[in-house]
Fold this sequence. Notes:
2 copies of one chain form a homodimer. By secondary structure, the first copy, chain A, is mostly helical.
Amino acid sequence: MSTQEELRIIALAEFASAGYSATSLQRIAELASVSKSSVLYHFASKEHLLEAAIGPAIDRMEAVLAPLEGTGLGNERRAFLEGFVDFLLEYRLEVNMFINQGSSLVDVPVIERANTVVAHLAEFFSRNSQSLEENMRFGIALGGAAYMLCTAHALGLDVTPATEIRAALITIMNELLAPVSTT
Amino acid sequence: MSTQEELRIIALAEFASAGYSATSLQRIAELASVSKSSVLYHFASKEHLLEAAIGPAIDRMEAVLAPLEGTGLGNERRAFLEGFVDFLLEYRLEVNMFINQGSSLVDVPVIERANTVVAHLAEFFSRNSQSLEENMRFGIALGGAAYMLCTAHALGLDVTPATEIRAALITIMNELLAPVSTT
DNA sequence: ACAGGCTCTGACCGATCGGTCAGCTAGCGT
DNA sequence: ACGCTAGCTGACCGATCGGTCAGAGCCTGT
C-alpha cells in the first residue's frame, strides 16, 4: 500500500474517533511512522487530507440518494433502503464523521457538500410525510441507524455478523418508514 | 445572571455546536464579553468548565436511569419512557455532547461518568433483549431519538412544538421497544 | 479611614498547532 | 556517468493554545 493511501486510512480513522480538530498532523504522522512534513507532501493541507479521506463516501452517498430527486420512491423503496443500508455499512467511519462533526465542521467545503446531500434527504422525507410524527420517524430511522452502527462498539454491542445486521437494519427501517411514500 | 452562570451556558452551547477541543477559552471569553483570565478565574481549567457545563445533565441522567438497576421495568415502562424523553428534551445540548463527542473525549473524568451511565443503559437492554434485532431496536430508538432532537435544526426540521414532539417521541419509541421487557 | 476579599484584567509562559522551505536520498532514463 | 524526479526529512515560522501571576478596581464590615 502506498504511503498516501496509508495516510488516508489512518487519518480517516483518527478523524472519526478523536475528531477532526482534535487530531493533529503530528499524530497522523506518528501513527504512519513518517514525518509531519511527509504528510504535508502528500496532502497540501489538513483540509485536503480530510477531503481525500471522506470524499469517496460523499460521492457514494450522492449516488445512493440520487433516485430521490425524482417524484418519489414508488415501488423501489426497498431497493433504496437496501442501498442506503449498504452504504452505511461500507462507509461507517465516514458516516460517523458526518453525523458527529457535520455541523461543527461547517465552512469546510467538502463537509458542506455532505451536509447538502443530507439536507436533500431530509427535505425529501419532509415533503413526503404528512405529519410531524411521520417526519420524526424518518429522523429516528436514518439518524438512529447511522448512529447505532457508528457507536455500537462503544455501547458494548457486537455488530460483527454483517449480513445479520444488514437484514435487521432493513427490517426496522422499513417499519419506521412504513407510512412514508406509500401513496 | 452571574458571570459564572453565563460562562457555563455559553460554554455549553459552544462545546455542543463546535466541539470541545475546537472551542477555545478565548472564544468563550469573547462571547461573554470578558477576558480569558476571567474565565479561568471562575473555572480552574477548561476541563473544569466542561464538568460544570454538563455535570447537572449527568446527575439527571443517572436519576432517570436508576430504576433500570432493578429486575426490570415491568409495568412502569411508559413512565420510564416519558422520563427519558423529558430528559432528552430538557438537556438537548448536553445529550448532543454525549452523543457526538462522548467517545472522543475519553480520559476526561466527567465524560467517563456519562459514558458509564450510557453503557449501563445499553447493558440493560442487551440483557433484556432476545435477539440481535431487538437489541438494535434499542440502539435505533434511543440513539435515533437523541440524535434527531439534537441535529433537527441542521436538517431543516422544526421541533418547536415541544408537547407535540414529546408525544410523538414517546409513541415511536414505545413501538420500537415493544418487544423488550414485556415478559 | 482602612483592611480584606471578590471580580476581573493584561502581560506573559511553554507547548503545540498548521504550514513553509531547503536539502537529502534512492531509483531511473539517457 | 549524468541529471532529473519522487519521496521524504529536520529546521524553522507565526499563530494560537491552555494556563500562571501580579495587580487594579470595587464593595463591604469594622
